[in-house]
Amino acid sequence: MRRLFGLLLGPQAGFLLGLLFGLQAGLQPLAARADPTFTLGVPPIHGARVLAERHEPMRAYLEKHLKQPVRVESAADFARFQARTLRGDFDLTITPSHFARLAQKDAGFQALAQFTPDHDALLVYSSDHPLAGLGDLRGKQLAVIDRLAVTVMATLSYLEEQGLEADRDYRVTEHRTHASVAYSLVTGLSVAAVTTSQGLLQIPESSRRKLVAQKHIADIPAFVFLARPEAPRVQVEQLKKLLLEFPAEAEGIDFLRNTGYSGIVAANETRMKRVDAYLKATRKALAP
Q: How far is CA 256 from CA 65, 115, 193, 264, in A?
């Protein structure tokens, strides 16, 4: 029935239904959720409609080569997305590198590949409301997509090193998308924001042309593709091969053009351990 709805209503509506069914499935034991559909988990960095549009080329590519229905699912926020990942809700997960490293080290998830280039944590302001220096943040508002985003964590850590502590010296407001972060800037609600080069592509041109980079904070490994711990070796190798070939395919060229990445490379220990410095803070933030 889910597949029929997706076919009748199109990929975007199919995603919305898939997300709904996925959230309902989270209330059921894994054994009760036998489903021939392959599930691709994607991080909640956009609204449902944009997530569907952005990932449709990858969804279609995987469906074609795996020869089974593929559904895209996400979660309401980063914490719940990580919970769903660790619970094994997704057959293949695209996830922030610090979440991937935790899943790998703590639960045995298998890192297959990751996007390039890195995510660059950028502290930006609006040209209509200039930020002369970091001190201008005092008593004001910093806009971010989610405190659990590793680029946000890196920026908050940097600001603390400069003597500015979140929730003491300035307020942090979380937004659902990079576009709403930018809107908070250009309307003057926030004096600064955290984004990335990839995030800038998701911001309307009318807002983007007003943004000025105050500081390039850090370069952090981009999103990682994870397979479940119990995924058979043959399936893991097939998925890895498909992911590495994806950038050269028509669907991959379209996907990369719209998301700001240049390619996909095999994951390895050297790349993965680059985010180890953020794991202690991530565990603390995820703790109940």
A: 19, 9, 25, 9
Q: Which domains does the chain have, with CATH numbers?
A: 2-117+221-286 (3.40.190.10), 119-220 (3.40.190.10)
Q: With residue 114 as reference, give the H or E element that holds it.
A: strand 110-116
Digit-coded pLDDT (tens) for 141-161: 999 999 999 999 999 999 999
Report the chain's C-alpha Rg in angstroms: 19
The two three-digit tokens of residue 69, written as one number? 């229905």
Q: What is the C-alpha separation between 268 and 3, in angstroms, rounded? A: 35
* 57 Cβ contact list (under 8 Å, min separation 6): 251, 252, 254, 255
Partners of 172 in the β-ladder: 142
In whole angstroms, what is the distance from residue 148 CA to residue 97 CA?
11
Beta bridge mates, 71: 39
- Is residue 34 pLDDT above 80, yes or no? no
pLDDT of residue 5: 30
Q: With bands split at pLDDT 50, 70 and 90, how would you rate the model's confidence at 57? A: very high
DSSP three-state, residue 27: coil
273 within 8 A of 98, measured Cβ to Cβ: no
**Residue 247's Cα: distance from chain center in Å?**
19
